Structure prediction request, 324 residues.
Amino acid sequence: MKFRILATFLAIAVATGSARAQAKYLPESNDAALRYWAAIEEMRDNPLTEEATHNMLSAVMKGETAWNEEKMGPVLEVYADSIQTMQRGTKLPDCNWGLDYRLGNLNINNLLMRSRGLEQLNTVWGVRQLANGDSKGAVETWRAGIRFTQDLGRGGPVINALVASAILLDELRAVASYAGPGKLPEAQREELYAAVKAMPEDGFDWGVSWGVETAMGEEWLGKLRGTDDPGAYYKRIGMPVPKGVPPSQQDVENYSEFMLAAQEALREPPEKVKPLLKDLESRQHKLSQVLQLQTAGLAPVRCNEARGKVAEAREHLLQALSAK
Prediction:
């Protein structure tokens, strides 16, 4: 009996030891979004909601206030883990936020606002590095911020692209104020110049966002066509049922044609596309009432203006980096 107990114990010990010998981490994901979600979660709060902190960070970004380690360092240290987690994410090749936009009611605004706060912290982190003599670290930080913002603008609806472009605009302008001759060593200026030169003129592919938006709209219009009470949604939110509910198949086709035309136009350079946008705006006003509601807030002209501002800020930064 004792022998059998001992044999059983030895068998368990061997099996356990063998399992431990085989234990290993699973391969790490190449999806940057997993790191970004973790960084946003680690933030715990959004620094943009605290007025004093927001004003201080904004003044540093604009170069209106010199970096003060004693006063500002502790503010950034609170968010150090979030910033560094985000930066690690930017080194990965893919980014899929994992949101099913067909489901609707996704808290995209919260994601975008917290992402804006995270990127503002990251930009100021680079200012801090530069002030403390780490110019190479500052450039790596700013490059990470550009990549993060580009990832934020890709793969989601148009609101993602608009907010991401505003964040990118702030960053490009901020970096330009710290990148001129005598502010950043020549080697780091050349490195940053190459990174900025390589990015698209308007920041990222806006057509992707319009493609996502098109699919979301087609999904919604299909649901309105397939339900027994297509006006129920509007009644539930206290809104008059618009004309054209339920939409016809022709309405769906008109919607798709308009959205895909906008998608194609917004892949052209911002200046070149301006004449095309006037025609698109006219076409949008001729859509049925239900389609005008569906496309409200999706003005191609507004998107192109945002693209133009990013292009202008990018060019200004390139000039600052190449100035002698």
User: Anything to note?
Assistant: The two ends are 89 Å apart (CA to CA). The chain has two domains: 32-199, 208-305. Residues 32-199 form one domain.
